[in-house]
Design a protein that fits this description.
The protein is mainly alpha-helical. It contains seven helices and no strands. It has helices at residues 3-17, 22-29, 33-40, 49-59, 63-69, 84-92, 97-115.
């Protein structure tokens, strides 16, 4: 069984354990039930970390486990969910070194503009 199928089976079981239909989840998360069905059936190749975070929160399952099953580097279990790095990772997923450098440069630019009052 592929990792994607494992993710789908895991999410389906978590949803059923919460006694939720796909339509219930759609209403609670604003993720279409068609997308959810494809995700549970392993047809989605790389689900968004944002979607995975919404689902793990709703289903009360480990975000780290869901990310690992989706093929992402997992966030450590003891990560403080209020930390900036946790929120950043849960919104963007993994980033390359080049992307990290570009983000760092852009943040420096924004901070310099802020300091100069522009």
């Amino acid at each position: 069984m592929s990792a994607k199928a494992n993710l789908g089976a895991f999410l389906r079981l978590a949803r059923k354990n919460k006694v939720l239909s796909l339509r219930d989840v759609e209403q609670l998360t604003e993720i279409s039930n068609a997308y959810l069905s494809q995700l549970e059936n392993g047809k989605i190749q790389q689900p968004s970390p944002v979607i995975l975070h919404k689902l793990s929160s709703l289903y009360d399952v480990s975000y780290s486990d869901v990310m690992r099953l989706a093929g992402y580097p997992a966030v450590e279990e003891d990560t403080d969910e209020s930390s900036v790095s946790y929120r950043f990772h849960s919104r963007l997923g993994p980033i390359s070194e080049e992307e990290e450098e570009s983000l760092f440069e852009y943040l420096q630019f924004l901070r310099s503009r802020h300091r100069s009052g522009k």
